[in-house]
Amino acid sequence: MGDWIYLIIGIAVLGVAVLVGLVSSVRRGRGGATGTDVIAPPPTDADVEAPGGAAPTAVLEPEAPVLERPEGTASRLARLRQRLAGSQGGLGRGLLALLSRDRLDEDTWESIEDTLLTADIGVAPTQELVERLRTRLRVDGNEAGDPRTVLREELLALVDPTMDRRLQVTGADGRPGVVLVVGVNGAGKTTTVGKIARILVAEDRSVVLGAADTFRAAAVEQLATWGERVGVEVVRGPEGTDPASVAFEAVKEGVDSGVDTVIVDTAGRLQNKAGLMDELGKVKRVIEKQAPVTEVLLVLDATTGQNGMIQARVFSEVVNVTGIVLTKLDGSAKGGIVVAVQRELGVPVKLVGLGEGADDLAPFDAGAFVDALLG
User: Fold this and answer.
1) Lesser CB count within 10 Å: N end or C end of the chain?
2) How far apart are CA 320 and CA 112, in angstroms?
3) Averaged over 240-257, what is the pLDDT?
4) In this structure, are residues 249 and 235 in contact, taking their beta carbons and an 8 Å threshold?
5) How far apart, in whole angstroms, are the C-alpha atoms of residue 316 and residue 374?
6) Of 9-13, 299-303, 338-342, which gets the smallest average pLDDT?
């Protein structure tokens, strides 16, 4: 009986020893005493040899971005007429209603004058227009023609269809045309640069953009996005870089790569005229070490009225403005700003912004504008 007890105890001890050994083995395989799973790293290219001993490498070709094809000038002009007729027609309809009265007394002429002033045409042009209308409709009578015809002719003369509104985007001696775009922040300056690039791309011109508004990181990123959409190179620098150095590099790139046009976006700060003059003057001087500036476009917000005129005066004193871009013209019934700003600066409105769309920028057409005013 004693031998059986010893035999049972021995078997039990042996069983416990085997069980302890198995548990230890499992724990070592799972990371030792911490119990953390150990996962072998995946084999690298060097670990897996292809036939012949060479390690295979997988090269993924980046997908080429799909470039947009901007609208041509013809469709832009068609939309110009449509948009302007919708937003500006109230001015023309109001004038025609007054001019079509049976009796044009002094109260009527005062109402006509008030209507024109409210449309931001300006005091001097308004007085000229009223005098011309009085002469033709009151003195000439039936010989002048119907009020609509007379008003159209006089408005067209005021807008001045004889002004040269072509963009000077071509350089001489094989160098690119250089377009300098100026204006205060908030007028739509950087967006305008991107939209002008689209107009030129639609005409099969090659373009380089210079992001010289270096004090606003958002402006640089915004311009880069505009360039990517149509495959246009954008020259940029770190935030706070000297704007003149970025402008210089952009024009240098344009010269070296033989592009048709370089468009340079500039800073729009207007704290004081002296600082603005120094900065823009330096940018222009540095650019012209590479190629002459062929166009200086001033971007104005059409809805700002007299504030826009003050800005126009400051910039015209700082740089030789050669053309005006009026943005947000579709959102205002104050289309008279076209007349006022041309009179103030003596330079033509060359482009008008009609909305938020990428191709909502069109060459200004005096006839289409006046027809839109008349509804």
Assistant:
1) N
2) 35
3) 93
4) yes
5) 31
6) 9-13
3-state secondary structure (DSSP) of residue 207: strand
The three-state DSSP-derived secondary structure of the chain is: CHHHHHHHHHHHHHHHHHHHHHHHHHHHHCCHHHCCCCCCCCCCCCCCCCCCCCCCCCCCCCCCCCCCCCCCHHHHHHHHHHHHHHHHHHHHHHHHHHHCCCCCCHHHHHHHHHHHHHCCCCHHHHHHHHHHHHHHHHHCHHHHCCHHHHHHHHHHHHHCCCCCCCCCCCCCCCCCEEEEEECCCCCCHHHHHHHHHHHHHHCCCCEEEEECCCCCHHHHHHHHHHHHHHCCEEECCCCCCCHHHHHHHHHHHHHHHCCCEEEEECCCCCCCHHHHHHHHHHHHHHHCCCCCCCEEEEEEEHHHCHHHHHHHHHHHHHCCCCEEEEECHHHCCCCCHHHHHHHHHCCCEEEEECCCCCCCEEECCHHHHHHHHHC
Residues facing 210 on adjacent strands = 235, 264
pTM of the model: 0.78
* Chain-centre distance for alpha carbon 238: 20
